Amino acid sequence: MRALMSESNKRKSALTSIARLAVMRYAVRVRYGALSIVLAVASLPAMVFAQSCPGIHVKVPNIKNSTGTIACALFESPEGFPTEFLQSATNITMMKIRDTQARCNFLDVPPGTYALAVIHDENMDGKLNTNFIGVPTEGYGFSSGAEAGMSAPSFEDASFSYDGENLDLTIRLKY
């Protein structure tokens, strides 16, 4: 009789262990599932904010090489445009070049009329280098498709209206 009780107890113990193991596995799956959902939901505001943050977002594609930096200068008046950007620009952003492209972002910009000047500062000296007759030796570009002829374009040629919302611009550099 003892042998039967002992056998019965062993079976109950084995069944109890199997049941506990199944419950523990289920609980772990539920925890991992819940944690995954919490992490996904928590990261949504950051992704949405990064994509919809009001500002002027400037894409600079097809840069000649990845040497140096890209300097984006935002002007709110004709004063100093585009050559005196260190002294006259409202905002300046310097970005490293990655895979021959760069992106400059200007956030918290009030609505108004602006113009952008972008240079590929290959030697990182903070200015657009030119040869002995004044022709640029580094890449440059302007907003609104403004082009340099015998001199840099005017503020009016490069100007654009900004309403305070999200604005995406693409500026292609000339070399």
UniProtKB/TrEMBL annotation:
Top-rank taxon: Bacteria
Pfam families assigned to the protein according to its UniProt record, in alphabetical order: DUF2141
Protein name: DUF2141 domain-containing protein
Organism in which the protein naturally occurs: Marinobacter zhanjiangensis
